[in-house]
Amino acid sequence: MRSLTKHLTPDELRILWILTALVVLGVAGRVWIASHPADDARGANPAAPVPTRIP
Fold it and tell me: Whole-model pTM?
């Protein structure tokens, strides 16, 4: 990584870190969505009452 930082300006390096963070967040989001299937995909009864939260 040090050899790469020698050729980049601070602004370019900042942009590279932001893009890297966006890619990592995008992958993490896809993994999270894939691990939590939608209720329709599980065959949940749409007529069932929705549980309420108790504060």
Answer: 0.57
